[in-house]
Description:
Number of helices: 8
Strand order of the largest sheet: 1-2-3-5-4
Structural class: alpha+beta
CATH class: Alpha Beta
Amino acid sequence: MNDAQESPEMELRHDKRKPDQLRPIRFINHIAPYAAGSTLIEWGNTRVICAASIQERVPRWMKEQRVPGGWLTAEYSMLPYSTLDRKSRDISRGKIDGRSQEIQRLIGRSLRSAIDLTKLGARTLWIDCDVLQADGGTRTASITGAYVAMQLAIQKLMKENKLKGNPIQQAVAAVSVGIVSGAPLLDLCYIEDADADVDMNLVMTDKGEFIEIQGTGEQTTFSEQQLAKILELGKIGIQTLMEKQAEALKENVQ
């Protein structure tokens, strides 16, 4: 067997990663000093600033419906220079981009599943995710980084004696998986995502439970066996991501 036949999978990925290998990940915490908690997540060539801000009030609908506790909401945006071709700001179009709206709702849903809002108190936790550079996986990077920013913000509230305990009940992370040229791959970069036969995003907790699964065949179908392999790869990636999150929180708490 020649060399080309010995390592077909290695040739599938232009950055020479193995099928079950994440891109390099780094967290730089406290990147936004005026935020209650913030981190810059560098995930391969994708970079997202995730910041958590606290408002000592809840939305009007909560007051009107007398809903106890607090609220968490998220906003997501891609800066004009985050892609090769300049992306127009939402304000220039007069409305939020449909994709951005979908992603920020996903971020909000994902983080709300991790926190007991009744223990947050009558306050709102705002999560802002701003993409500085996009190379695939911006929504998964946003969720993974937003969890770290949220934890830092909650730790700040606890240090200020505004919370008696940590309302965050479980860790949350997200990763992309897919099938490219017939091969299941973990953590798709932009080139792989553009050529994917199947594209999927997984959001999971540290208990191994799913928060959300977004998956579709791109002009093709996929089998139950392929789905099982994709989920297996995703679980591997989520476990590694949560180890990275824990390291970032342990090393950077002020």
